[in-house]
């Protein structure tokens, strides 16, 4: 099967724009890019790009495709099947926003990943962590004071709670066995879990090193949910590959992260969105969560600017699932607010993200022989990156050479 996209301007980060191009897709790969007429088969599908901008599909490095706010009350009330059906709606919303691949930080499992790969529903391709490692009483330990445990578990989906080097070793192996592409660790308190504080680290350095050593020997990267400054330092010392959120990072720790090539996924959208949108009226812990958010929003963007200035590589991630899906590319506006250029922000969610997940040879740019995961955009985001935040400007989305959004 061939598809010809004609009359487009190709926008790849870190490159000059290629104007008035024709792009030939064969099956799921980009076969040819040319300013001249391209030879095609008789039954080629033709898409007129109308002088719009063709870009690589974005990679969201921190999303939760199955989540709908992480409300414990919903875990308690809803049947398990609904947990999976959420992914269908959320997947389409995410693709329509221009995101064709995600790093899912839980709780998408191997079955959800296989279903997407088989085309049973439209959603981004997934790199999955299955479920995060959680210390007892730490962030996302959903054991309530009432004695009820709100953690969702079922056959093939391991519990994430563990303590001490032996338990974290075994749990890392269990999560790998469950099909994880990377390991996610809750290395500090967080906003959504009561009785934890984002200021405080979780897991000690010995536990963190045990996780990293076991993951790396199996060629799996390790990502840390971490707001705490001490927690960030613990994770860098333990050999983590990325820090997610990084709220209380400072100049000295930023320098250490840059020296050790530890990436930062700041997820600024989620905190700003939650702070201004609030929590449901029925959320018994809304006041506690809002108080935490107030402290985070106060310093987060300024601290991320320091990290950027110190040379830390920032990757685009949104924490979608904590907030409503489909707003993913609004994160690019927040990234440029920290000092990144429009081009750098776009790279953080395309070619740089592809490199981080080990897919630079197949994703992240509009290039011959790469997989045709592409978006057609109304306007030039290098002039105004906020164009990408409006889903109506994402005119078409192509995934594996197939049109999955068409305005």
From TrEMBL:
GO MF annotations, alphabetized: hydrolase activity, acting on carbon-nitrogen (but not peptide) bonds
Pfam families xref list: Amidohydro_1
Taxonomic superkingdom: Archaea
Keyword match Hydrolase: yes
Alphabetic keyword roster: Hydrolase
Domain Amidohydrolase-related: 53-402
Residue runs in coiled coils: none
Classification via InterPro entries: Amidohydro-rel, Metal-dep_hydrolase_composite, Metal_Hydrolase, Metallo-dep_Hydrolase, OTAase-like
Name of protein: Metal-dependent amidohydrolase
Organism: Methanobrevibacter smithii (strain ATCC 35061 / DSM 861 / OCM 144 / PS)
